[in-house]
Amino acid sequence: MKLPTHDAAAREVPEDSSHRIVLPRRTPVAPLRQVARRLLMALLVLVATVAIVWIDRDEYHDNANGSVEFLDCVYYATVTLSTTGYGDIVPYGDGARLLNILLITPLRVLFLIILVGTTLEVLTERTREQWQLNRWRNALRDHTVIVGFGTKGRSAAQTLRATGLTRDRIVIVDPSPKVIDSAVAEGFAGVVGDATRSDVLVRAEIQRARQVVIATQRDDTAVLVSLTARQLNKKANIVAAVREEENAPLLRQSGADMVITSASAAGRLLGLSVHSPSAGTVLEDLIQQGSGLDLIERPVVKAEVGKSVRETEDLIVSVLRGHRLLGYDDPAASPLQPADRVITIVRAATEEVDGPVKPGSKPMIPGTGVSPMSPVRRDDQR
Fold first, then answer.
1. What does the pLDDT read at residue 36?
2. pLDDT the model gives residue 271
């Protein structure tokens, strides 16, 4: 087995890197801004307390000279809010004592909350993150796991998004924390860790995934990830990319349903573009979902059953019947049968994926009333 160059992302991550799940979150406030905000709140509480004591200063008694000046009010407010309470300045009037009960005591509590706000915020944040993580795990079903978020993995995620898969149904696995932070910034959930280890894939809930995309930079890594993923999930549809064509059979034997040779595919597109630039442009448009023309696989609708492939509204290029992939010109492809799946060329939908979508709804192919997001499971092909 030929080993290509090392994965650049893997080189910068130590072997003992902790595995963790990172969910999308709101943009955090800068630490200095948080500190400045809390200091301002504490200062406002102190000013309010000084103002209350100054207004009612005639009902306070200073054991040193009997009178309470402005500096004495500031001093009293400071030691009172910090719960020090030396007792050298005390309220002796009923009005002053009532104000201490109704106003200064709540301000003292608020001041203490501000002082210990960092600790409370950390505890609250950890509790919220744990609750959010448990909720995410319980709700995650039939999702897509993308291993590797380099150029190939990012392009795969963009294509899945263009076909109607929402961001919360995609989980990114990568050994680099920086890469995962980038994926989280785009709205995806991420798992930091080596995908060749089963515990990392379990954190991505791969045992309940519907699809697995392996887009690592090394072929040997892709083989190990495919073996581990197939061991954890017997029914998932696994699609993997390899650099060298000679490693494709190993990936198929390791459990991958579909293997894409990235170097050969790019070379073929280059050769086609040299021979026929227009054909190369059309082919590139077909593999870019969401713009121009889209090449999709979908089930046969009821209205198409019994018709020839040339009699349908969509341009059908192939028919999938069981394990056989029949071309449009194959006499056995017609008439279409209810259990068939067809590969068609359709005009890309113009609806924005991120727009408001009803819960449970799926994007439909124009003119068919069916959703393209219905891949064949591994057990359905047998």
1. 76
2. 75
- Least confident segment among 12-21, 151-160, 238-247, 282-291: 12-21
Pairing of strands 258-261, 237-242: parallel
Average pLDDT (177-202) is 90
Q: What is the largest CA-CA distance in the chain?
A: 112
Over the stretch 291-311, which tens digit does the pLDDT of each residue have?
A: 677 777 888 888 888 888 888
Would you place residue 350 in the very low, low, confident or very high pLDDT band (cuts 50, 70, 90)?
low
Looking at per-residue pLDDT, the higher value among 138 and 13 belongs to 138
Banded pLDDT at 290 (limits 50, 70, 90): low
- Tell me the pTM: 0.56
Rounded to 5 degrees, what are φ and ψ at 227? -60, -45
Spell out the SS3 assignment of the chain: CCCCCCCHHHHCCCCCCCCEEECCCCCCCCHHHHHHHHHHHHHHHHHHHHHHHHHCHHHEEECCCCCCCHHHHHHHHHHHHCCCCCCCEEECCHHHHHHHHHHHHHHHHHHHHHHCHHHHHHHHHHHHHHHHHHHHHHHCCCCEEEECCCHHHHHHHHHHHHCCCCHHHEEEEECCHHHHHHHHHCCCEEEECCCCCHHHHHHCCHHHCCEEEECCCCHHHHHHHHHHHHHHCCCCEEEEEECCHHHHHHHHHCCCCEEEEHHHHHHHHHHHHHHCHHHHHHHHHHHCCCCCEEEEEEECCHHHCCCCHHHCCCEEEEEEECCEEEECCCHHHCCCCCCCEEEEEEECCCCCCCCCCCCCCCCCCCCCCCCCCCCCCHHHCC
Q: Give ∠ CA 257-186-190 in degrees, rounded to 5.
A: 55
Question: Which residues have a Cβ under 8 Å from the Cβ of 92 and sit 6 or more positions away?
Answer: 59, 60, 61
Q: Is the distance from CB of 212 to CB of 145 less than 8 angstroms?
A: yes
